[in-house]
C-alpha cells in the first residue's frame, strides 16, 4: 500500500496537530513551519497527490477549500489587510507533501512573488 501522507496521519491521530477547522470533506491546521504570522493549510480529506491529479469531479471540493480559506481569513482577521493563497506543484515549486493543500498566508506584509 502507498505510504500515508503526513496529513492523513494527522487526520487519523497518528501525528499530533491542532485541527482548527473540519467538515466532511476538508480540514485545516496551522503550518508547522510558518512563513508569516498566519500560515494555515487547508487540506482535502481525499488524497490527491498534486493539482495535476485533480479531475472534474474534484471541482466542488477545490471550491470548498477556497471558501474555507476565505472564512478562515476572516476568522484570523486578515481578510481586509490581505493574504495569499497558493498550491505548490511538484519539484520546481518545492512541493514537499504530495497530498494537495492550499496555503493561506498573511498577517504581515508579504514579499512580492
Ligand atoms: P508544500 O511545500 O507546499 O508541500 O507544503 C507542505 C507544508 O506542510 C510545509 O509548509 C510544511 O511546513 C507543512 N508541514 C509538514 N508537516 C507538517 C505537520 N506535521 N504539521 C503542520 N504542517 C506541516
Instruction: Report the oligomer.
Output: single chain
Uncertain segments are: none
Total count of strands:
5
Can you identify the CATH superfamily? HIT-like
Distance between the termini: 38 Å
CATH fold-level topology: HIT family, subunit A
Please give the largest β-sheet. 5 strands, antiparallel
Strand coverage percent: 15-25%
Q: If helices are DSSP runs of H or I spanning 4 or more residues, what is the number of helices?
A: 2
- Would you state the CATH class? Alpha Beta
Radius of gyration over all CA atoms, rounded = 14 Å
Name the structural class: alpha+beta
Strand order of the largest sheet: 1-2-3-5-4
Bound small molecules, by name, code or SMILES, are: adenosine monophosphate
Helix-residue proportion: 10-25%
Protein architecture, described:
The chain is α+β, with helices and mostly antiparallel strands and 113 residues long. The chain has one domain: HIT-like (HIT family, subunit A). Helices cover 21% and strands 22% of the residues. The chain is built from 2 helices and 5 strands; from the N terminus they run αβββαββ. It has a 5-stranded antiparallel sheet with strand order 1-2-3-5-4, with helices on one face. The termini are far apart. The mean pLDDT is 97. The chain binds adenosine monophosphate. The site of adenosine monophosphate has 13 residues, from loops.
Amino acid at each position: 500500500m502507498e505510504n500515508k501522507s503526513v496529513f492523513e496521519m494527522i487526520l487519523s491521530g497518528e501525528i499530533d496537530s491542532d485541527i482548527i477547522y473540519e467538515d466532511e470533506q476538508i480540514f485545516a491546521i496551522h503550518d508547522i513551519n510558518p512563513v508569516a504570522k498566519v500560515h494555515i493549510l487547508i487540506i482535502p480529506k481525499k488524497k490527491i497527490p498534486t493539482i495535476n491529479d485533480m479531475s472534474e469531479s474534484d471541482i466542488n471540493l477545490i471550491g470548498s477549500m477556497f471558501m474555507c480559506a476565505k472564512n478562515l481569513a476572516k476568522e484570523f482577521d486578515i481578510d481586509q489587510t490581505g493574504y495569499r493563497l497558493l498550491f505548490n506543484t511538484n519539484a520546481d515549486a518545492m512541493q514537499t507533501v504530495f497530498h494537495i493543500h492550499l496555503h493561506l498566508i498573511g498577517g504581515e506584509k508579504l514579499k512580492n512573488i
